[in-house]
Design brief:
Blueprint (H helix, E strand, L loop, with lengths): L6 H9 L16 H16 L3 E5 L6 E5 L10 E6 L13 E3 L8 E2 L7 E2 L15 E3 L8 H19 L8 E6 L13 H4 L3 E7 L4 E3 L4 E10 L15 H11 L15 E9 L3 E10 L2 H22 L4 E9 L3 H4 L4 H12 L5 E2 L7 H7 L6 E3 L11 E3 H20 L1
Parallel strand pairs: 3-8, 3-9, 9-16, 10-15
Antiparallel strand pairs: 1-2, 2-8, 4-7, 5-6, 7-17, 10-16, 11-13, 11-14, 12-13
Helix pairs in contact: 1-3, 3-10, 8-10
Function: Cleaves the N-terminal amino acid of tripeptides.
Subcellular location: Cytoplasm
Protein name: Peptidase T
């Protein structure tokens, strides 16, 4: 019998609810489906008998508190997960269970076998011999990012409620929207949350522990062309599509996601919509180092300035908006939260894998609000697409780590 009886049933129930966020929305949350799901979680937390369960007005996060069961003053520890899923089909999610996976077989996701999990393509599968995997049916994402985290936090709290012999300080819980579109933590209310230290349970495979993230910016380019008949174009036409291609070609050839790794930053063109008359382009700019990050933004603008100078007029307009910064700059001032999480993993026989994440978490922004918030694993693999899967045993280990963190802070 599973140690955390409601962990997988909750997860399977949660992922079947479409909570995809909407990048084109200006509301908080960005979609009504997120609001409905957050309301259902608030009802569940109330049913569990937690205290101060409420929705924060400015952020739409659902907050709750498990009271301390010790008299001495210890840090209040927060655990945070987001409920939205990424920009891939998230309607009619039909998770499949693969029990006792042998570590080498090809897993057929859809009935026709058009989409498969093949260890030759996804070598991470070989780590899961003898474990139970939860996959998609090939037509949707799974949503382990981050409903695995949501399920794990709920299971940890339930376990603490059922086992008062485990001593802990106040446990603060937060479930929020819109992490996948980069706006979820913009209005996070640190004071209302009430934690002294926090962790996002939003990482990948077993043992992942992150306290360094990218510095991140979103860049939009708007290009004004001059559209005339091709037969009479000499010296007159300005093809906005071609200008966009020339702009992209002026960026460093190897500074792309598909050609970089580890601490290497990049420029990523994620959207290109154009006609001869007008073209719009969307980029994300990333680097772990703050100075190199700023240099990348200067280069980006410099290319546009040079093109406008060559045209003799402003045809290329660049708008850059910073999204988040490397939380390592904050956490390095006091690495205690990372050391506690590292020790917690070792205590439950998980080997910590500490590395700079090539992305960001809600903790990136929350750390800069004064609440140090590193990130611990939730278990998902191949996130944001049809090949996403998660191990039941890894999810159980994530619960173990959350519980051990709570215990270590109580002992501290």
């Amino acid at each position: 019998m599973a140690k955390y009886t409601e962990l997988i049933p909750n997860f399977l129930k949660f992922v079947k609810v479409n909570t995809r966020s909407d990048p084109n929305s200006t509301t908080i949350p960005s979609s009504d489906r997120e609001t409905k799901f957050l309301n259902s979680l608030q009802d569940l937390l109330n049913e569990m008998g937690l205290e101060n369960v409420h929705t924060n007005d400015q952020s739409a996060y659902v907050f709750a508190t498990l009271p301390a069961n010790i008299d001495k003053k210890v840090p209040a520890v927060g655990f945070i997960s987001h409920i939205d899923t990424a920009d891939f089909n998230s309607e009619n999610i039909n998770p499949k269970i693969v029990e006792n996976y042998d570590g080498h077989s090809v897993i057929k996701l859809d009935d026709k076998g058009e989409y498969t999990l093949d260890p030759k393509v996804f070598p991470s599968l070989t780590k899961y011999q003898g474990q139970t995997l939860i996959t998609t049916d090939g037509s949707t994402l799974l949503g382990a990012d981050d409903k695995a985290g949501v399920s794990e936090i709920i299971s940890a709290v339930k376990y603490l409620q059922a086992h008062p012999e485990i001593k802990h300080g106040e446990i603060k819980i937060a479930f929020g929207p819109d992490e996948e579109i980069g706006t979820g933590a913009d209005h996070f209310d640190v004071k209302d949350f009430g934690a002294d230290v926090a962790y996002t349970v939003d990482g990948g495979p077993l043992g992942d522990l992150n306290y360094e993230t990218f510095n991140a910016a979103d860049a939009k380019i708007s290009i004004k062309g001059t559209d005339v008949h091709p037969a009479e174009a000499k010296g007159i036409m300005v093809n906005a599509i071609q200008v966009g291609m020339d702009f992209h070609a002026a960026l460093p050839d190897f500074d792309r996601p598909e050609k970089t790794q580890d601490r290497e930053g990049f420029f990523h063109l994620y959207d290109f919509q154009g006609t001869v008359d007008h073209t719009e382009m969307g980029y994300i700019i990333r680097d772990h180092d703050r100075d190199r990050f700023e240099a990348r933004k200067r280069l980006f603008k410099g290319i546009a300035n040079q093109m406008n100078s060559d045209f003799g007029e402003d045809r290329v307009k660049v708008t850059i908006k910073d999204q988040y910064y490397n939380m390592g700059e904050i956490i390095k001032k006091d690495p205690t939260p990372v050391k506690i999480a590292e020790q917690a993993m070792k205590n439950v026989d998980v080997k910590p894998h500490i590395f700079p994440v090539r992305g960001g978490t809600d903790g990136s922004k929350i750390s800069y609000m004064g609440l140090p918030t590193p990130n611990i694993f939730a278990g998902g693999e191949n996130m944001h697409g049809r090949f996403e899967y998660v191990s039941e045993q890894t999810m159980e280990k994530a619960v173990d780590v959350v519980l051990e963190i709570a215990k270590l802070y109580a002992e501290k």
